[in-house]
Amino acid sequence: MSEDLPDVRIGGVSRGAFSLRQSGGDFWLQQDALRPGEERYGLETVRCDDLPFTRLNPSLDAQYDPEAQVVTFAPRLELLPTRTLSVSLTPVTPEGVTSLPLYALDYSLSAARFSGGGLAQRGSARASYTNGPWSAQLGVAEAGTSGQPVEVGVSASARYQLDPDLSVEAGFNIPSLLTGSLAGFSGVQGQFSGQIGRTLDTFTVDVPLGGRIQLSSGGRPLGSWTVDAGRVVFRNVPLVGTSGAVLAVIEDPAGRREQAQVYTFPTAVLAPGNYGVVAEAGALGGAAYARGLVRYGLTPGLTLDAQVGVRAGEVGGRVAVTAASLDQVISVGITHHLDGLTTAATVDYGGRLGRFGLGLGAQIPLGDLRATRAAASVATELGGFSTGLSVGYDPSRLGWYGGAQVAGSLTRDVRLSVAGRVGTQSSTFSVTLGYQPNDHWRAAINTVATANGPAIRASATYQPTLDQQWNLAYGAGTGYAEYRRRGAAELAVGAGTSGEVNATLRGTLVSAAGRVYATASRTDDISVVLETGVPGLAIYTGGLFQGRTDAAGTLVFSVSSAGAADVRVDVASLPIEIAVKEASLPLTGLTARAVKVDWRANFGRSRVVDFQGPDGQEAAYGTVVVDGERYDLDAFGTALLPVSVSVLRGQLSLEDGRQCAITLGPAQEAVQCD
After folding, report:
1. What residue ranges of the chain have pLDDT lower than 70?
2. DSSP string spanning 639-665?
3. DSSP symbol at 618
4. Which helix (H) or strand (E) holds 378?
5. CA 277 distance to own-chain centroid
6. How remote is the C-alpha of 457 from its chain's centroid?
7. Which burial class, exposed, middle or buried, applies to 359 when counting CB atoms under 10 A from its CB (0-12, 13-18, 19+)?
8. 3-state DSSP assignment of residue 355
9. E strands within 265-368?
10. Rounded CA gap, 93 and 101, in Å?
11. What is the pLDDT of residue 419?
12. Are 386 and 408 in contact (CB under 8 A)?
């Protein structure tokens, strides 16, 4: 029996050198080369010279190269075990996220001079305190114009948010949840929901070399597991939201890879058994008021909506049933003394039929069918242009009317939109030509023809950076120019050719974690104090620019508690000396009203160092080893090294093979061999 000590490679990944013996065409491999889960790769086991050997399964088709001293074979999933894991959607606080008490003062000031010489001004301030699920606020707003007394309004509220699905708030002169009123409600309001949720029966992940699996659904982490070689079947995987993907990130000896399964459900309906409740009671506009809304998922494609309310002694309500699939949705209901309707049946439909999008809506007063209002529309894509036709009837305002619209791109930079509307009372026709050569410039010219004659409007915007913008506009014979800047506050100033002048300043002062911050973002819903350690870093959430980090690398902004917030940096715009591990950070399951997010470990700062040989010449194409890390030098003998507060020592290897020791100080930009 011959014996060798080859390198064992499974799936192209080296396991190291192990003893190999051959007998009668069989390979006997030192058993230590196999890992847990790979027991069936071997058949019987024997001991020889105090070492355990296993006879490799012939189905592995192992190959041995005696000259290269390499044994190779591919993983065989049918020989590996299958494990089953159940998954649940439990609240997981993202790493580096902590709750903190926060004081904030939102302010807004504006002043205007009109073309006729009149003046107007308005201002508001809102002080708030947030700690864990509790928050309270007190606001004051005032407005005045020339010759009119100043009007002052006060608002106050206290809110308790146990989790994203349950909140209760009591307030004075605050927005209504159900009527759309932005102020004027005083009383108690609450909302909660029951989420049974949809699940994916099974999600299978193959890990033929063993490794670590990170599982998420709709961007929300579900957990991580370190598993042996084999197949993992996740059961009852929660599906977060109406669309997304179940994503497994697998890290194994072969590297990093992803496996995903996309899911989509109708957005207009709730999952079976899910429900949502919104209720408020108190006073609205000086009259006693109460209203409640309940939504309940009856089947996968059917949801019941019921709403009932009373205001100034008048009771009203609405009941509707919504049926939906991925490309069709229809809602049928009846409304009584609610939202301006007496007693009326309502029908709304939207969907797709092949290439055509269809829409239909109608409100049918049961006591007066002649007051019926209805509208229908059809849209499609023709030759790269979006086209649409609509027709409707509204006896209270327009009578019969119809419209058509065509919009699309003429070139990469030029876009055209043509629209017309005809009716028994009025008709209009408009053409808009837009031009956007890059992300910094955009312009548009629009002409509108009505019974009063034609009118021309034009506008242009120049945005040199994310935080500043110039706007120009022309219309009705006058021009207007405006400048906007977003930094520690948001500033807007503008002036027109007819003599009008406007100025607005708004922002927020925040006190948290022993510091005071100035930010242009309002403190709504959940306030986030993001620490990156990198000054001037552009931060986005949900694709929207939130601002740049201050001199300490910190930015304060707000996110919604209704879903996951994706905090992102633009990697392409980062300076060369800034290294980033991950471009985005999902924030999910936040229950506190204010949190601090420590993201500093995600960023690293480097410096350009010029290396020289003993003779002072550039160490072109050499290598340097510092603290065990190897760095390749370019044609000028430079490399990016991490910033350090201490003296670094290492070794420089020149292209000709010479080596010498180096010592690099914290602020040193050039170093020569010692």
Report:
1. 1-2, 90-94, 561-564, 589
2. EEEE--SS-EEEEEE-TTS-EEEEEE-
3. B
4. strand 373-382
5. 26
6. 35
7. middle
8. coil
9. 275-284, 287-299, 302-311, 314-324, 328-338, 341-353, 356-365
10. 17
11. 97
12. yes
pLDDT at residue 94, rounded to an integer: 65
Residue type at 186 in one-letter notation: S
Q: Is the dihedral of CA 218, 219, 222, 226 positive or negative?
A: positive
Calpha distance 78→76 (Å, rounded): 5
Q: Which two structure tokens, joined as six digits, stand for 167?
A: 């909140």
- In the sheet with 97-99, reading across from the earlier edge strand, the strands are 97-99, 594-598, 526-531, 554-559
Could you give the CA distance from residue 362 to residue 330 in angstroms, rounded to a whole number?
Answer: 12
| 572 SS3 class | helix
**Do 52 and 34 contact (CB within 8 A), yes or no?**
no
Residue type present at position 407: A
State the pLDDT at residue 503.
97
The secondary element (H helix, E strand) that includes residue 501 is strand 501-512
Angular region, 464: left φ>0, alpha ψ -120 to 50, beta rest:
alpha
Q: Which two tokens stand for residue 93?
A: 């606080």
Question: What are the angstrom distances between the C-alpha of 326 and each of 263, 358, 563?
Answer: 11, 14, 21
What is the gyration radius of the CA atoms in the chain, in angstroms? 34
Q: Quick check: pTM over 0.85?
A: no
Q: Which two tokens stand for residue 588?
A: 């999910």
Please report the pLDDT score of residue 641 as a whole number.
84
Q: Are 380 and 389 in contact (CB under 8 A)?
A: no
Round to whole Å and give the CA distance between 481 and 459. Answer: 10
Question: What does the pLDDT read at residue 562?
Answer: 65
Instruction: Determine the 3-state secondary structure of 276 from DSSP.
Output: strand
Residue 515: CB atoms within 10 A of its CB come to: 12
Residue 629: burial class (beta carbons within 10 Å; 0-12, 13-18, 19+):
exposed
pLDDT value for 1: 54
pLDDT of residue 182: 82
Q: Which conformational region is residue 132 in: left (phi greater than 0), alpha (psi within -120 to 50 degrees), or beta? A: left
DSSP E strand stretches across 164-229: 166-174, 185-194, 198-207, 211-217, 220-227
Give per-residue pLDDT as tens, 288-331.
999 999 999 999 999 999 999 999 888 999 999 999 999 999 99
Phi and psi at residue 188, to the nearest 5°: -120, 140
| CB-CB neighbours of 1 under 10 Å | 10
Q: Return the structure tokens found at 18.
A: 């192990």
Report how far residue 118's alpha carbon sits from residue 132's, in angstroms, rounded to the nearest whole number: 47
What distance in Å separates the CA atoms of residue 164 and residue 554, rounded to the nearest whole number? 26
Q: Alpha carbon of 119 to those of 136, 195, 492: distances in Å?
A: 34, 52, 17
Are 265 and 271 in contact by the 8 Å Cβ rule? The answer is yes
pLDDT of residue 563: 63
Contact assessment for residue 270 and residue 258, using Cβ atoms and an 8 Å cutoff: no
Output the pLDDT for position 284: 93
Residue 483: enclosing H or E segment and its boundaries? strand 478-486
Pairing relationship of beta strands 565-569 and 584-587 according to DSSP bridges: antiparallel
